[in-house]
Amino acid sequence: MPEHQKGKGKGVSRRTFFKTTGVAAGAAALGGFHFVRKSQAASGPLKLGCPLPLTGPYGTEALDQQAGAALAVAEVNKNGGVLGRKVELVVRDTKLKADEAARRAKELIESVKVELMTGCLSAANQLAVNEQCKLVGMPYMSISQSNEITERRDASVYTYHEALDPHTTTQAVGKWAAQKFGKRWYFLTSDYAFGWQLTDGFRRVGKMFGVQDVGETKHPLGTADFSSYFPRIMAAKPDVLIIDNFGKDQLNTIKQATSFGLKKKIQLLCPVLLASARLGAGTAAYEGVVGGTSFYWEQNHPTAKKFVAAFQKANGRPPIDYAGYAYSGVLELLNGVNRAGKLDALALATAIENRNYDNYKGKQWWRPCDHQSQQDVFILRSKTPKKKYDVFEIIDTVSGANEALLRTCVELGHKPGVPNRTGLKK
User: Fold this and answer.
1) Which helix (H) or strand (E) holds 212?
2) Which residues contact 15 (CB under 8 A, 6 or more apart)?
3) In the 8-state DSSP scheme, what is residue 124?
4) Residue 210, pLDDT above cutoff 50
5) Which DSSP letter does residue 199 get?
6) Residues 6 or more apart from 165 whose CB is under 8 A from it?
7) DSSP letters for 64-75
């Protein structure tokens, strides 16, 4: 276990994580995981599996992931495909349930005969799919936030993480906020792994800047009414309310906090600030709200402009950051196989590790020890739009260069600078 998660009251133990998210229960329901031999013959389209929570509270973001992945596949196919084969994206709905994610991944591997995997949203779903892929030696590109997937127990030679993780997000946003706002912080935390890890990360960075933790309230995933929490928050007299949730939970929190008058005295801060939630809640609700993101569609950068133009042409609207994760992650996976010259996990790892790339937002870097993409984090502020999707402005950039925002390889259980070969099957 990483050092920052050891000890009573710090972080989330692995046992607690599995118990809470349902991954262990999902595996048991399947009767355990089974090794599946893959055919050595390569014919017909190369099938890329993509389990996503298309139904449930993260459905809006999942649809953007699907659209981003589809755009990447279309571009690769336009350029000749992978090893001369056209790529076919095969999507399955996980319903945001870890056991369902495991079943869908198993189906994609055994019945559909996919040869590569991407997808998922939520750490529990990612870990379930990643476990299935490791068992059969299949490369998996994770495209949403997770702390666990790069830690030694879950990382492998087959596992890649294109997205930010809760630690990176909180170190960037927390560092910025501690220097701009007051030092009394209160946490409204979604009561599952993602929310816990965001709060844990903010507390960690807060200590570096003398921040005072004045309280925390946890809420169930999918909460509709947050109003009962606000009197307790107001009574603590925080300078900043850090809203450690996502999707519809964030939308409802912001709308109701605005109606309650919370923003008159407290700065609202969202570690992951999404255009999808902002559009759903409206301009007035998000006025003055600040947060972080991996990407915003109005970035003044050549690859961002190219990505946005292609996405808008295909979908009739700009992308959110989760579309960017999927687009870039799928490009790295498919083009990595082309650079490797064969569909071989070790050759793919060699083709990706230590690579600098810029697919859609600016420079990114692959770290060999855990296959984590290093990248900048952008600080956003909501604004009054001049057009429908023009909802944020980028007010600062926190650099991710030189592993500045990542946990160290040693902290995650890896050897610094040593390529990850965990779980390699001969």
Assistant:
1) strand 212-219
2) none
3) H
4) yes
5) H
6) 145, 146, 147, 149, 150, 372
7) HHHHHHHHHHHH
Ramachandran region, residue 240 (left: φ > 0; alpha: ψ -120 to 50; beta: rest): beta
27 three-class SS: helix
Residue 162's alpha-carbon distances to 113, 138, 360, in angstroms, are 24, 16, 12
Cα angle 198, 204, 206; round to 5? 100
Amino acid at residue number 127? L
Q: What is the pLDDT of residues 237-249, one digit of tens each?
A: 999 999 999 888 9
Q: List CB contacts of 256: < 8 A, sequence separation 6 or more.
A: 225, 226, 227, 230
Is pTM beyond 0.70? Reply is yes
- Residue where the block lists tokens 């450690």: 244
How far apart, in Å, do the first and last CA atoms of the chain sit? Answer: 28
Name residue, tokens 């890649």: 160
* Residue whose structure tokens are 């139904």: 55
Per-residue tokens: 13: 């133990």
| Joined tokens for residue 81 | 């495909």
- The answer to whether the CB of 264 falls within 8 A of the CB of 238 is no
Give the containing element (helix H, strand E) for 176.
Answer: helix 166-180
- The 10 Å CB-count burial string (b at 16+, else e) for 153-189 is ebbbbbbbbbbbbbbbbbbbbbbbbbeebeebbbbbb
**pLDDT tens digits, 98-154:** 999 999 999 999 999 999 999 999 899 999 999 999 999 999 999 999 999 999 999
In order of start, what are the domains of the chain with their CATH numbers?
22-164+300-375+404-412 (3.40.50.2300), 167-293 (3.40.50.2300)
